[in-house]
Amino acid sequence: MSMFRAKRLDLGCFVNIKVIRDHTKRKIFAEHEAERQALRYIIRNLSLPARTRVQAQLELSQMHSYTRSTQIRNRCIEGGKARGVLRDFKMTRYNFRVNALAGSIPGVKKAQW
User: Fold this and answer.
1) Which residues lie below 8 Å from residue 31, measured CB to CB, with a gap of 6+?
2) Quick check: 53 and 100 in contact, CB under 8 A?
3) What is the pTM of this model?
4) HEC per residue, the chain
5) Is pLDDT of 40 > 70?
6) How far apart are CA 103 and CA 113, in angstroms?
7) How many Cβ atoms from other residues are within 10 Å of residue 82's Cβ?
8) What average pLDDT does the structure give for the chain?
9) For the range 58-61, what are the long-range contacts, defined as Cβ-Cβ under 8 Å and sequence gap of 24 or more?
10) For residue 18, what pLDDT is reported?
């Protein structure tokens, strides 16, 4: 895994090993996304010879797991937690509530009826 380790981290949140690992996964995925899409296109293209398609399947299966989109996990930008994260705000429910009540999030206010 040292080959994927980031040289310099540009994270703006609480840093623990899971946040660092997720950050690394996102960078590796972004670097290899085009290559994975090309291989998947070759595999699905029935007009190509079977040997070429099998070779593409083999290459795709030998790629590192960090290049898969399923490895990426949504994490809170403040606390680094992976559970209860609101996608629109990239925050956990608790951090969202605290920031919303403090007025730190533009356009969000407590509901009154």
Assistant:
1) 67
2) no
3) 0.72
4) CCCCCCCCCCCCCCCCHHHHHHHHHHHHHHHHHHHHHHHHHHHHCCCCCHHHHHHHHHHHHHCCHHHCHHHCCCCCCCCCCCCCEECCCCEEHHHHHHHHHHCCCCCCCCCCC
5) yes
6) 19
7) 14
8) 87
9) 60/36
10) 84
With beta carbons less than 8 A apart as the criterion, state whether 29 and 72 touch.
yes
Contacts by 68-77, CB closer than 8 A, 24 or more apart = 68/29, 68/36, 69/29, 69/33, 71/25, 71/29, 72/22, 72/25, 72/26, 72/29, 73/22, 75/13, 75/18, 75/19, 75/22, 76/13, 77/12, 77/13
Res 14 pLDDT > 60 = no
